[in-house]
Amino acid sequence: MEVKGRAPGKIILAGEHAVVHGAAAIAASIDLYTEVHLALRPSGQEDDLLEIDLKDMKLNLSWPCSQLKGVLGDCSGDGTLLRLCTSEKLELLSGLVSEKKLPQENIQLSSGLCAFLFLYTSILGFKPGKAVVTSELPMGAGLGSSASFCVALSGALIALSEKLFLNDKEKKIDLELVSKWAYEGERIIHGKPSGIDNTVSTFGNMIKFKKEVTKENSIMPVNSTTPLKMLITDTRVGRNTKSLVASVSERVLRHPHAMTSIFDAINSISDELALLVESPAADQAAISEKEEKLMELMQMNQGLLQCIGVSHESIETVVRTTMKAKLVSKLTGAGGGGCVLTFVPALLSAAVTENIISQIEECGFRCFTVEVGGPGVQVFSC
Q: Is the pTM of this model over 0.85?
């Protein structure tokens, strides 16, 4: 049996970094996707292999199933039984990946390959198979590429695990289970993720997310009443999410009262933005007023992100460039480079948009427009 999992990337409209410290964040899916084509092979042959083909990276790796079983030999292969990746298991997975001696330009893929091996063997056991991965999302740019991969992979694995006939409307993928498995993959890649990326990639649309300490995270759907379009600029500046999150935490220790006030302000922006997105707009004048308020909230959020030290000169270059056209931009994700959002009003002409894109790309950046708030993970029978 062969299946294909397809999962979207995400943007954060408000609340990044502050969400780690108890504030609400607003996140939404975008129409850029990662696809994982997964096929099982007959077992019992001499060359039983688990193979992954990363098409965009031109990288193909494989492991004998007998080796995986010898190293990881406690996997149940039951997709309905969620398993946690312990530090001991992660060390074993890292050893399996490091022996492949990845080229230096691909070394950042190591944690993603560990996540692949963990999810595959935990859900399907040691069955030989091949995964072919393609993605429209830039890596490490704050658009949820790793979560998109983990969600698409988890959806495909669960479909195969439960032997679902995906054309049968009574047989549906358990999206909660997909999200939980994907979160385990995200933990391997990022250490301590917020859970936003895998949630949005799994369920799609737009959500208001708040991390809870003593109970399950609060996730509320946000239903947009008007279409939203964003121009995304990939600054091509790499950044380390873990170190940026750590630097914000260090600033909290140095300035606890000031940082708490900033997080409270960001929380208020997220709350107001959610209400604004859901508010009806009867005519074009009402839509324009709504868009103006949304841009003001984005502008305030960017200013506060500057205050907590996660902006970057490349981000500020985009902010200044789009400001000349009276448009508002903000970083999305961890900051320190990565991607920048620019809100595209409904009445903005194509000519003006193309002129802005041209000015941004003259700085060495890459631009593309996206629709915000589409469907989440989908799994197809091949």
A: yes
